[in-house]
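User: Some background: our group keeps a shared notebook of sequences we're curious about, and every so often someone picks one and asks for a predicted structure to add to the entry. Today it's my turn. The entry only has the sequence so far, pasted here. Could you supply the structure so I can complete it?
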Amino acid sequence: MNKNFIGYFLLLFQPLFMASNLIVARGGVDDVPPISLSFWRWFIFFIILFVLNYKYLFDNFQTIKKESKRSFFLGLMGCGVCGIFPYMAGSSTTIVNMGILYTSSPIFIILISYFLFKDKINIFQFIGLLFCLVGVFAVILKGDINLLLELKFASGDFWMLGAALGWAIYTVMLFQWNSELNFFPRLTIISFFGFLSILPFYFIEHIYFEKTLFNEEFYYWILFAAISPGIIAFSLYTLTIKYLGPSTTGFTLYLYTIYGAFYGIIFFSEILENYHLIGTIFVFFGIYLVRRKSKNEIKA
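Assistant: Of course. Here's the predicted structure to add to the notebook entry:
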């Protein structure tokens, strides 16, 4: 079978699983407290990967020990912040909003790379940042400037922006910190530190706020969250990079937003508003400009 066909099929197919995390964020929090949902998701995720990679992990224990501090930080960002925040968002905002706002993470990646690692920002990227900013505010304000004047916002939108920022930090540092470990063993260690970083907050939530009920609904949501937007999504994402490279694979983020909107409409009877369309156009066009190279960069 043609290599490009497989690659582009994966490009279309993978976001179906990645965006299913929005279903968990919107529906799962009705049955499982958000921090508990995140903790148990990453715990099951770790157990599954550990079973598949335990021999490699034991053989490379010294490397794991050497990289443990960096792995903890990546687990805190990629599993802790990006695990808890979307589930906190799900109780007060829509899947459509979450999908669009999460798409802003490439903008945070550009800004973090600029301020921390002195990466240059060209004129296209600067204009793209402004377009994305307008698009994000269009969604948060629901097209109503009075919400800004009265400071009335849905808390879930800000939780989702926090998740986008966390994913950006995770992505930048994952790229900057090279590892001697293979991808899936490294992901196993990151998920281990991820659920450990969530553990104290899980205890606080369970003792002082909302207890976790270990019933049928709990096991359904935890297994779904660990497998569909977890194991399957990460595996397909890695396979897509193998066929198409990281730049083209990055376009899964666009489809993530579109599939997320369909999930919201189909499963939760959400309605696409004009401000969703306007915000999406601004964000997508902004990301297009951010990815575009200036004439000087092309000549170089």
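Suggested note for the entry: DSSP finds 16 helices and no strands in the chain. Residues 294-300 have pLDDT under 50 and may be disordered.
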